[in-house]
Automatic annotation (TrEMBL):
<dbReference type="InterPro" id="IPR036942">
    <property type="entry name" value="Beta-barrel_TonB_sf"/>
</dbReference>
<dbReference type="Pfam" id="PF07715">
    <property type="entry name" value="Plug"/>
</dbReference>
<keyword id="KW-0675">Receptor</keyword>
<keyword id="KW-0798">TonB box</keyword>
<keyword id="KW-0732">Signal</keyword>
<dbReference type="Pfam" id="PF00593">
    <property type="entry name" value="TonB_dep_Rec_b-barrel"/>
</dbReference>
<dbReference type="GO" id="GO:0015344">
    <property type="term" value="F:siderophore uptake transmembrane transporter activity"/>
</dbReference>
<dbReference type="InterPro" id="IPR000531">
    <property type="entry name" value="Beta-barrel_TonB"/>
</dbReference>
<dbReference type="GO" id="GO:0009279">
    <property type="term" value="C:cell outer membrane"/>
</dbReference>
<comment type="similarity">
    <text>Belongs to the TonB-dependent receptor family.</text>
</comment>
<dbReference type="InterPro" id="IPR037066">
    <property type="entry name" value="Plug_dom_sf"/>
</dbReference>
<keyword id="KW-0813">Transport</keyword>
<keyword id="KW-0812">Transmembrane</keyword>
<keyword id="KW-0472">Membrane</keyword>
<dbReference type="GO" id="GO:0044718">
    <property type="term" value="P:siderophore transmembrane transport"/>
</dbReference>
<feature type="domain" description="TonB-dependent receptor-like beta-barrel">
    <location>
        <begin position="285"/>
        <end position="749"/>
    </location>
</feature>
<feature type="domain" description="TonB-dependent receptor plug">
    <location>
        <begin position="153"/>
        <end position="228"/>
    </location>
</feature>
Length: 791
C-alpha cells in the first residue's frame, strides 16, 4: 500500500501542470544536430532568439544523447543558433509553425578532433540544468593534458574532477564520494563493465578513439540507473561515418591504436571498428636478460559497432567489446583477465515527443592466476556473467510533463573461484567456490517538471527486486557466530537447481530541485536512495583484477545508500564555479576478517563481516573555458568511515580510500596555432592503512602484529605529482582531410616515490628493530611521446 501511495503521488505531481500549459498555443520544433561525419552531437547549446531582437533569448537548452532537442514556441519568426566547443557556430532563421524536423550539421572549428564530455551529471548550463555537478573536458583538451607514457586515458581524466579519487597507481577502478570501486556502475553503450583497468589500473579499457561521450553522475542519479551506490559512468561509443571512409589512430610509447568508420547499404547504415595493443612485450623478447625476455606484459582490446536506419522512425545498433591483459614470468607465474560485452538496441520514435528503446545486453568478466613453481603450482579461475533485457520510454508533452519510465530484467551467473593443481606433485587440492545465480528486476518512473521560471524539479522512483537462486543441486549454508571471527554453518538447506533461496525488494526514491537566483546563479538540492546486489570482495588495500565478485545471497544482504546534497552554481563570462556539499550513509557494507584470502576460498561467505558506512564532504570546482590560458581547479574536503561488526573493537575507522584533502590543478596554454603546453598537479592526503602497533618473538624471530585489532590506524605519506606536456600540431596542405599532432609528456616531474604499500619485517642488521619497506609503482620521471592522426 505504501508503494502504491508513492506512485500515485508522483503521478499527481506530474499531471496537474497539464492544465496549466494546455491553454497556451505552442507548436513543437524538433531539432537534430550532427557533425559532417554523421555523428550525433551531444550537449550542443541550442538557443532561440526573437527575430526582431536577437539579443533576447526566448528559449534554450542542449541536445540529448541522440543529438535531439525540442522547443515549444508560439507562432512567429525566430533565429535558431547552435554553439559547441571545437565547432563553427550555426545560425538559421525559422518560421513557426514549421514543416517537420530541423536537421542541422555543424562543422569542425579547426583541429578536427571530436569532443568527449565528462560531466558530473548534465550536458548543459550548470546553472540552469536540473542536476548537480557539471564538469566538461573535450577530447582536444584531453589530448593536450599530460598522460602516463603519452597514453590518453578517459578514466584517469575523471580522477581530476572533485569527489573522485583512487588508492593510487596500480589500483583498479576509482572511488567516488567515499564509495568502493564496485559501487560505480560503468556502462559502455549500456553494457556494464566489471573491471575498467588495463595493467592493474595504469590504463583504462576505454580506447579514446572509440569514445563519443562520457557522463559521470555522482549524485542526483535518475531512477533509470540502478544497481550501484556511488556513481554512474555512462560511456557512449562513436558510430561510423554515413557518407565516406574516416579514420583515426596513434602510435605511442606503450601502444598503437587504429579506428575506422564507413557507410554500408547505400548509406543507410554505418560500421565503426577500432583496435589497440601494447607492444612492450615484443621488445622484452629482444633482451639478453633471461628474466626480461621471459616476461609477458601486454593488453589489447577491440571495439565494433554497426548502425542501421530501418526507416525515418526506426533505428537499430549492435555494439561489442573484447579486451584482455596478460602479465607474468613464464617460469614463475601468470595473471590474466578479460572483459567482453555486447549491446543490441532498437529505437522507435512514435512522434517527436514520444519514443521507446529496447536493449539486450551481455557482459562478462574473467580472471585467472597461475603459479608455475613447484610444489605450489596451481591455477585459479573466476568469472561473473550478466544477461539483461531493458526497455526505456520517453514521453514529453510540455514543461510539466517530461516522463521517462521503463523496465529491466537481469540474470547473473557467478563463480567466485575454482582452484586446481597444475601438477601431481602440487601441495594444493582442487577447490571450488559455491557457484551463485540471481535475478534482478527493476521498474522506474521519472518526471522533469518546470513549476515556474525559477523553480524546477526532477523526481522519480525505482522499484528493484532481487532473487538469489540455486546454481546447482546441493546444500546452501546459513552462517552464524561471533562477528569478526570465522563463522560456522548454523543451518543447512538442500535446494534443487533454479530454486529460490532468498528474495529482496527495495523502493528507491530520487529527487532534485533547482532554484534560479539569477540568470547566472542557482542553488540545487537532491536526495537519492540506491540499492546494490553485486559485491566485490577484496582482501587488499587496493582493489586488484583478481578480487572476487559475488551477488547477494541468504547471508549477504543488499547494500543500501542514502545521499543528500546541496550546491551553489555560478557562471560569469568564461568562468564556471560550483560548490557542492553531500552527506551519505550506507548500510550492509561488506569487509573481510583479518587473514582472509578470497582467491581459492571454497566459501568466502564465512569470512565476511558486515556493518555501515558514512561519507560527507565539500567539493569546489572552478573552470575557465576560453582564452589562451584556460583550465580548471578542483578541491575536495571529505571524510569516509566504516563501522563493521567485530572489527576495530566495533568503533568507527577510516575507510581504506579515505582522503581528507584532494586537490587537482589543470592548466592549458595555447601558445600558438602550432604549440600548446599543459600541466597537471595533484595533491592528496595519504590513504588509510593498518600498521603494526606491537611485535612478538617466536624462536628468535621478531614478528610485527596489530595490538588491539585496530583497522586503518595510520596513513601513508601524502600523494603528490606534477606532470607536464607539449602538443605540436603538424601543418598539412590546404584542403587535406589528413591531420596529425605530436604529444610529448613528462609524468611525475618531481620524481616522487609515492607510496603504494608498506611491508614490515625484522631488521637483519639489528634483530631488535622492525623496519618498513616501501613499494612505489612509479618512482621516477616517466617520459612519453605519442603521434596522433586523423583522416
Amino acid at each position: 500500500m505504501k508503494q502504491n501511495k508513492i506512485l500515485v503521488l508522483l503521478l499527481f505531481l506530474a499531471f496537474p501542470g497539464q492544465q496549466l500549459f494546455a491553454q497556451e498555443r505552442y507548436y513543437r520544433l524538433p531539432v537534430t544536430v550532427r557533425d559532417t561525419s554523421g555523428q550525433s552531437l551531444i550537449g550542443v547549446t541550442v538557443r532561440v532568439n526573437a527575430a526582431d531582437n536577437t539579443s533576447k533569448t526566448i528559449s534554450g537548452g542542449s541536445t540529448d544523447g541522440e543529438g535531439h532537442f525540442e522547443f515549444r514556441l508560439p507562432k512567429g519568426i525566430y533565429i535558431l543558433s547552435l554553439t559547441y566547443i571545437g565547432f563553427q557556430p550555426v545560425s538559421q532563421r525559422i518560421n513557426v509553425p514549421s514543416d517537420g524536423e530541423f536537421k542541422l550539421v555543424m562543422r569542425s572549428g579547426g583541429t578536427g578532433l571530436q569532443e568527449v564530455i565528462v560531466r558530473g551529471q548534465s550536458k548543459t548550463n550548470p546553472v540552469k540544468n536540473l542536476e548537480m555537478g557539471v564538469q566538461s573536458i573535450n577530447l582536444s583538451t584531453l589530448r593536450k593534458m599530460p598522460a602516463l607514457l603519452g597514453e590518453v586515458d578517459v578514466v584517469r581524466s575523471v580522477l581530476s574532477l572533485p569527489g573522485v579519487s583512487s588508492v593510487g597507481e596500480g589500483s583498479s577502478g576509482f572511488n567516488v564520494r567515499g564509495g568502493n570501486v564496485d559501487q560505480n556502475l560503468v556502462l559502455m553503450d549500456g553494457a556494464p563493465v566489471f573491471n575498467t583497468s588495463h595493467l592493474f589500473g595504469l590504463f583504462s579499457v576505454f580506447n579514446p578513439e572509440v569514445v563519443q561521450d562520457v557522463k559521470l553522475i555522482k549524485g542526483g542519479i535518475t531512477p533509470d540507473y540502478g544497481g550501484r551506490l556511488s556513481s554512474v559512468m555512462d560511456i557512449k561509443l562513436k558510430s561510423g561515418s554515413p557518407d565516406s571512409l574516416r579514420g583515426a589512430g596513434g602510435i605511442g610509447s606503450v601502444s598503437a591504436r587504429l579506428s575506422a568508420g564507413f557507410p554500408i547499404l547505400h548509406n543507410k547504415g554505418s560500421v565503426f571498428i577500432a583496435a589497440r595493443r601494447t607492444y612492450a612485450d615484443q621488445f622484452l623478447k629482444l633482451s639478453s636478460d633471461e628474466n626480461l625476455n621471459s616476461t609477458v606484459a601486454y593488453f589489447q582490446d577491440f571495439n565494433g559497432k554497426v548502425d542501421y536506419q530501418l526507416s525515418t522512425k526506426d533505428r537499430i545498433s549492435l555494439a561489442g567489446y573484447w579486451g584482455n591483459d596478460k602479465l607474468g614470468l613464464q617460469k614463475d607465474f601468470t595473471i590474466g583477465y578479460d572483459n567482453a560485452n555486447a549491446a543490441a538496441t532498437y529505437l522507435h520514435e512514435f512522434s517527436s515527443g514520444f519514443s521507446a528503446k529496447t536493449t539486450f545486453l551481455f557482459s562478462q568478466y574473467r580472471s585467472n592466476l597461475g603459479v608455475l613453481q613447484e610444489p605450489q603450482s596451481l591455477l585459479s579461475k573466476q568469472y561473473i556473467r550478466q544477461y539483461a533485457l531493458k526497455t526505456d520510454w520517453h514521453y514529453r508533452r510540455n514543461e510539466a510533463i517530461d516522463l521517462t519510465f521503463g523496465l529491466s530484467a537481469i540474470r547473473y551467473d557467478v563463480n567466485p573461484g575454482v582452484q586446481t593443481p597444475l601438477t601431481e606433485s602440487s601441495v594444493f587440492n582442487t577447490t571450488t567456490s559455491a557457484r551463485q545465480a540471481g535475478n534482478e528486476l527493476g521498474f522506474y518512473l521519472n518526471n522533469a517538471h518546470k513549476f515556474s521560471k525559477k523553480l524546477s524539479a526532477q523526481y522519480g522512483i525505482r522499484f528493484s527486486y532481487f532473487g538469489a537462486v540455486a546454481a546447482q543441486n546441493g546444500p546452501v549454508y546459513t552462517y552464524g557466530g561471533m562477528p569478526g571471527k570465522e563463522l560456522l554453518p548454523v543451518l543447512t538447506t538442500e535446494f534443487k537447481k533454479g530454486a529460490a533461496i532468498k528474495n529482496y525488494g527495495n523502493v528507491e526514491p530520487r529527487v532534485s530541485l533547482r532554484y534560479l537566483l539569477s540568470e547566472s546563479a542557482s542553488i540545487k538540492a537532491g536526495y537519492n536512495r540506491m540499492a546494490q546486489y553485486v559485491h566485490l570482495i577484496s582482501a587488499t588495500t587496493a582493489s586488484t583484477p583478481l578480487d572476487a565478485w559475488m551477488i547477494s545471497t541468504n547471508n549477504i544482504r543488499p547494500e543500501l545508500a542514502d545521499q543528500f546534497s546541496l550546491g551553489y552554481f555560478m557562471t560569469k563570462h568564461s568562468y564556471e564555479l560550483s560548490a557542492e556539499a553531500y552527506y551519505k550513509t550506507m548500510s550492509n557494507q561488506i569487509d573481510v576478517i583479518n587473514g582472509t584470502e578470497p582467491i581459492g576460498n571454497q566459501d568466502v561467505e564465512k569470512d565476511l563481516v558486515y556493518g555501515k558506512g558514512r561519507s560527507y564532504g565539500l567539493e569546489l570546482y572552478l573552470k575557465k573555458n576560453t582564452g589562451k590560458l584556460n583550465g580548471f581547479a578542483s578541491y575536495t574536503l571529505s571524510k569516509t568511515e566504516r563501522q563493521m561488526n567485530g572489527v576495530n573493537n566495533g568503533d568507527w575507522y577510516n575507510a581504506k580510500y579515505d582522503r581528507t584533502h584532494n586537490l587537482n590543478l589543470v592548466v592549458v596554454y595555447n601558445y600558438s596555432n602550432k604549440w600548446t603546453f599543459s600541466s597537471n598537479y595533484v595533491y592528496q592526503t595519504g590513504v588509510a592503512a593498518t600498521f603494526p602497533s606491537g611485535r612478538s618473538e617466536f624462536q628468535g624471530i621478531i614478528v610485527p602484529y596489530n595490538n588491539g585489532d585496530l583497522r586503518n590506524n595510520y596513513r601513508y605519506s601524502p600523494y603528490s605529482r606534477l606532470d607536464l606536456s607539449a602538443t605540436l600540431f603538424v601543418r598539412h596542405r590546404a584542403g587535406s582531410r589528413f591531420s596529425s599532432n605530436w604529444v610529448f609528456s613528462l609524468y611525475n616531474v618531481l620524481n616522487r616515490k609515492n607510496v603504494y604499500a608498506l611491508y614490515f619485517k625484522q631488521d637483519n642488521a639489528n634483530p631488535n628493530k622492525t623496519i618498513a619497506n616501501q613499494l612505489s609503482v612509479i618512482g621516477s620521471i616517466i617520459p612519453g611521446v605519442t603521434w596522433n592522426f586523423n583522416f
